[in-house]
Design a protein that fits this description.
Elements (H helix, E strand, L loop, with lengths): L1 H8 L3 H9 L31 H11 L20 E3 L5 E4 L2 H4 L8 H8 L1 H8 L12 H7 L11 E5 L2 H21 L6 H7 L11 E5 L8 H4 L6 H4 L9 E2 L12 H24 L4 E6 L13 H13 L3 E5 L25 E4 L6 E5 L19 H16 L2 H22 L5 E6 L2 E5 L3 H13 L2 E2 L1 E3 L3 E3 L8 H16 L3
Parallel strand pairs: 2-12, 4-5, 4-6, 6-7, 7-8
Antiparallel strand pairs: 1-2, 3-9, 8-9, 10-11, 11-14, 13-14
Helix pairs in contact: 5-14, 7-14, 12-13, 15-17
This protein binds pyridoxal-5'-phosphate.
Subcellular location: Mitochondrion matrix
Subunit structure: Homodimer; disulfide-linked.
EC number: 2.6.1.19, 2.6.1.22
Amino acid sequence: MASMLLSRQLTCAIQQYCRLFVPGCRSVSQAAAKIDVDFDYDGPLMKTEVPGPRSRELMKQLNGIQNAESVHFFCNYNESRGNYLVDVDGNRMLDLYSQISSLPIGYSHPALVKLVQQPQNVGTFINRPALGVFPPDNFPEKLKESLLSVAPKGLSQIVTMSCGSCSNENAFKTIFMWYRNKERGHTAATKEELDTCMINQYPGCPDYSILSFMGAFHGRTMGCLATTHSKAIHKLDIPSFDWPIAPFPRLKYPLEEFVKENQQEEARCLEEVEDLIVKYRKKKKTVAGIVVEPIQSEGGDNHASDDFFRKLRDIARKHGCAFLVDEVQTGGGCTGKFWAHEHWGLDDPADVMSFSKKMMTGGYFHKEEFRPNAPYRIFNTWLGDPSKNLLIAEVINVIKREDLLSNVTHAGKALLTGLLDLQARYPHLISRARGRGTFCSFDAPDETTRNKFILKARNKGVVLGGCGDRSIRFRPTLVFRDHHAHLFLNIFSDILADFK
Ligand SMILES: Cc1ncc(COP(=O)(O)O)c(C=O)c1O
């Protein structure tokens, strides 16, 4: 009720916003405000610059007890709704970054509010179990209802974890165990192996490797960091492994104008993958698995064709390496399919697929042959959190009930079409507009301009995220509609028109 009242009070705010804050309102889009989600606000409302005085004061406080220089501003999550993030100074912003791509159905979705208020769920929210040893009675049922109901084709097994890095880290371990078991001929480990693993030596600790791609981001734990190559700041000062790193295609845009060049670029990268597998086998650092993001996200929203990924999958199979698809950022529906790799049309599924972010819990799916052969080999205290399984079960219900995958495709088209239009009008400021679903991005001419875009947009009521060295990435919620896209495009069109 309160949210409906809120919606009514805020009716026509987009038009008011245009009049008040967007002089001349140089529209690229004629779409009027449309209120179809009663928990959403109608438009941005800015009271101070961001960060405002209250945020700045809190930043000072936090910085006294930890390095808080990454904080953009402090938020009021009780007031945030739908696609709108409200900060502690009362500024309400259209959020196209959505907690680094991790908010599936908007802030304070009524279905989730209801879920946490139900008395039968209280126990799940307040008693966090050690799931590997003391799971609750509804654990298998909840997994089936939630995560397994969206399991990628061919992957029947599931392990839950608490974050993306921890999911990939354990997926790597699963792959190494699988590979060793295969090499050993599925027999028990020898005494020598058991002894040497205790002192980090061969043969107990084999010199296996995971092949990754330049520009990839798979997390910040030590194993994951060895496969992360997006920015030096993540890696500096941390010891790492000598694991193979292949080039990731650098596609030229518009794609239809550079078909041949892009095919050659992808072929070059695939050839390098095979060469590295052979080279590392000779070096006795056998490649047990290949890890890849369907779209390199933190590294700059780098895309490759479906054909590239099908061929990469073939190479993994040919050389006996596991194929791990990291869907931590691309998963959960934002590309218009539940998992981005479903766009590829693989005839043989991935072996392992990790997820987190929009899925509310981390974890990974895998084929049955990747099951560890003993308990505690893949283990930690919590192994995820059943309260998150309750939430993701409801999120999946909402996605299905509201057909949000179709919405993503539709709204993504509105967003990308608008970006391409802006690119045609401001080619010196915008290039390489690209995307799948709402997972869109474009490049600014350089990092300074990109950062200015983000700051200007924020002060006009839009939260954007950057990635790579000069890209802006769009990571809205799944309840981002066409009218949100038009609202953003109008605001950004004005920023470009006045850009200095
Ligand atoms: C593709 C990908 N993998 C892994 C991670 C790491 O996830 P987390 O930050 O939850 O550890 C991220 C985080 O952004 C990611 O984008």
